[in-house]
Every structure is written in C-alpha cells, then in structure tokens.
Design brief:
Layout lengths: L6 E5 L8 H15 L3 E6 L12 E5 L3 E4 L4 E3 L15 E4 L4 H13 L3 E4 L4 H8 L1 H8 L3 H10 L4 E4 L2 H9 L6 E4 L16 H4 L6 E6 L8 H14 L3 E6 L6 H8 L2 H4 L2 E5 L3 H10 L2 E4 L8 H8 L4 E4 L4 H4 L6 E4 L2 H13 L1 H15 L4 H24 L4 H11 L6 E2 L1
Parallel strand pairs: 1-2, 1-6, 2-3, 6-7, 7-8, 8-9, 10-11, 10-13, 11-12, 13-14, 14-15
Antiparallel strand pairs: 4-5, 9-16
Helix pairs in contact: 1-16, 3-4, 8-14, 12-15, 16-17
Length: 414
C-alpha cells in the first residue's frame, strides 16, 4: 500500500536568516520533503539556488530588512492573501507575528488544522530587531500577551524542549503543548578528518573551548570572554575560540579580543564554512553556550554528534540538551561555569567518557526520525484534532487526546 503524501505549508519570517530557529525550520522542511511529501515554504526574502528536494517549494512573501545585523525581515504579505495553494493538508506556523496571522487566516479559509512551533520569545528578541518599537512593546509583557493570544488559536503547539514548554506554561499559555527536538541533519554525524584545522585557526597545542553562536546580547559572549580569563589563569594552555554569524554584539567582541590581556587566549573567527565548523566541533575539547532564552541550543547537539562535551547555562532549552554529569555540565552561575570548564580541561579520562556518552545521546536528534514524527502529528491534527476545534468541543478533550497520542511517538513528550 502506497503511503499517503501530504501537502504541508511551512510559514516562517526567518527562513533565510542565520540563527538556530531558522536552521531548525530549514532542516525540518528539507527532511519532510526528502520523505516525498510536498512542502510549501512561505517566507520573506527566500535565498534559493541550492540543491533541494524536488518536493520543496518556495513562495517568497517579500518584505524589508529592518535590522541588517540580525538579518530580520519585516513582512506584511497581505497582498498574497488569496494566493495560498488550496490543497494544503496542514499549516505549520513557525513565527507568530505578521506572517503567522496571515497563515491563520489562510488556514481558516481552507479548513485545515494549524500547528505552531514556538522557538524564540518575541519579548526577548524584538528589542534587538526593532529597537524603538521593540522596547515599547516589551513593556508590561505585551508581547507575551500577543503570543499567548495567537497560540491559543492553534490546534496544537510545539516547543523543542520540556523546559521551554514549562516557560510557556509559566506565562499561562494553554495546553495542548508537545515537546520534541528540532533535530539536526545527518551531516553533523559524519566522520571527519581534522588534519590542519587547528593550524588554520591558530589553536595548535591548546585546550580549546568552542563557542559557536550568533553574537547577540542574550548569548553573553562578553561575559564568557571575561570569565575565560579566570579559566586561563588556572589552565595556561586553555583557548576560547568564538565562531558564528554577526549580530548586535559583534563590534564589542571584535574590540575586546584585540586587547592585549585577552588576545593570547581568545580569538574570534567569524562565520566559518559548515565543513570547518564540523571539524572544529570534532577537534574542540569542549563546547559551551551561556544563554537563558534558548529554545534548545542546536549548536550543543551538533557538537554532541561529534562527541564533544559541553558546559552550559542551567536554563530553558539547554537544561534538556546537556545531560548533567553524563555529556557535560549545567551551571547555575558563571562561578560554577568556570569550575566545570576547569574540571573537564584537567581530566582527559572524564572528557573521553562524556564524549562517548554525547555521541550516544545525539542519536536521538537525527532529523530524519524527527520528520517522521511530524508526519504522524500532521495526520493526527488533520484527522483528530481539527474536527474537535471545528465542532467547538471543549479544549480539555483535545488536551487529553494529544496526551494519550504522543505516548506512542518516540522522543515526543507532553
């Protein structure tokens, strides 16, 4: 019997940006298309021209870049209100402002279910993207209220981690909310030869901690650099290498790494190729991420796939990725962060143990398996959840149905 092929609409304001949430949307879109399903991506300023699955279709919604350092594009695609393909089975909405609202209207017109993935809280990011308006909207939790209002309209809400779900529940978002990793591509699991990579980035004979991240205030790169000075005093051959796309903190990072007291043990390589990034994950002794607003922290999972232990903030998202005492350590403050990094730098056997564990845990994050879960959730939303909402059944019926259904799906949590 031939498997049913779905027509899925993916709606995202940041499909072509360079950040973890954008990577997650691209990885998922491509993985579902590789399974043979038709994926229609609706996004502004889509960068095409790369080899993609034949069943992955792009619909450029236009828009204007309002924040060059972040690549954020503001799009109000009302001119395409009536141009949505009329054969979609489900709308998967990845951003919840302008494009998300249009997607909700489209879905209502077409009579199809809506699923919303909550990645980055607007409350924490809008002040970077749209500084003046963002600061105004962030007052009095207006953006949390807006997102809560929108997500309540979906048949199902998704978060990448249980701790992110807990964050939403703390802000009184309503169930049903499921937690499932965004996943990473098989590319990150491949065996690589790292010959020459340490020489290329001038980190020969060093104990290397890699910080792979977009340079933004919420990632606290300056605080990590200053903390690493204390680590370097205890581990003289320790080196901090920062890589990643530019962001609001780029100028500050470039300035501080040039200072004499930091330049010997901290370097910033900017955005590197994916092949170099993979080799750096492999050759690094540790990776780290110090952020309190992560949905998941894909860079940690990518490094785990190469068998690299991590140290990160014991906070939303990260706390579900790093297995404390097994694949790395979760720190409650920067003093603990320093302690754990020094401990791992000093203990080669412990790093080797954590490395083996990291590779085993990373297998749970392969995107091809996550995509299969999504196909089941899409069918479930279409056949079971949408009829309940359409017929105005009590929300608790939908909640209980989701709770019971996801028990049968691997690595999906309620």
């Amino acid at each position: 019997m031939t498997e049913e092929k779905l027509n899925i609409g993916i709606f995202s304001a940041m499909y072509s940006q360079m950040n973890g949430s954008a990577h997650a949307v691209r990885f998922l879109s491509e993985a579902i298309a590789e399974l043979g399903h038709n994926v229609h991506v609706f996004a502004p300023k889509i960068v095409d021209g790369y080899k993609k699955p034949k069943t992955l279709h792009f619909h450029d919604l236009g828009g204007a870049c309002v924040s060059p350092k972040t690549g954020f594009v503001l799009s109000f695609p009302f001119h395409k209100y009536f141009l949505c393909p009329h054969d979609l089975d489900v709308a998967h909405i990845q951003t919840h402002a302008t494009i998300g609202m249009v997607a909700l209207s489209w879905a209502k017109q077409l009579g199809i279910p809506t699923i919303g993935s909550h990645h980055s809280p607007m409350q924490f990011y809008t002040t970077q993207y749209i500084p003046i308006l963002g600061r105004y909207l962030a007052k009095n939790d207006l953006l949390w209220r807006y997102e809560r209002h929108v997500l309540e309209k979906y048949d199902l809400t998704h978060t990448p981690t249980l701790s992110k779900k807990d964050l939403l529940l703390n802000y009184t978002f309503k169930e049903p909310i499921v937690a499932m990793t965004n996943g990473i591509k098989d590319f990150y699991f491949q065996d690589v030869k790292v010959n020459g990579i340490r020489e290329k980035y001038d980190i020969e004979d060093k104990k290397v901690m890699l910080y792979a991240s977009r340079l933004s205030p919420e990632k606290h790169p300056i605080r990590i650099i200053k903390t690493f000075m204390k680590i370097h005093k205890k581990i003289p051959d320790a080196h901090l290498l920062l890589v990643g796309s530019e962001g609001p903190s780029t100028d500050a990072v470039k300035k501080i790494v040039k200072k004499r007291k930091y330049s010997d043990f901290v370097s910033y390589a900017g955005r590197v190729s994916y092949n170099d990034l993979l080799k750096l994950y492999n050759t690094a002794d540790l990776t780290c991420l110090w952020s309190f607003v992560e949905a998941e922290g894909l860079v940690l999972i990518e490094s785990m796939a190469q068998g690299t232990p991590s140290v990160g903030a014991n906070a939303s998202g990260i706390s579900n990725v790093i297995r404390h005492g097994k694949t790395g350590y979760l720190a409650n403050n920067l003093d603990q962060f320093e302690e754990y990094v020094v401990k791992l730098f000093k203990d080669d056997d412990l790093r080797e143990k954590f490395s083996k564990n990291a590779k085993e845990v990373a297998e749970n994050y392969r995107i091809k398996n996550i995509a299969k879960n999504w196909i089941e959730l899409y069918k479930f939303a279409r056949d079971k959840l949408y009829p309940l909402r359409y017929n105005r059944r009590p929300r608790n019926e939908r909640v209980n149905m989701v709770k019971n259904y996801v028990r049968n799906l691997p690595n999906v949590y309620f």
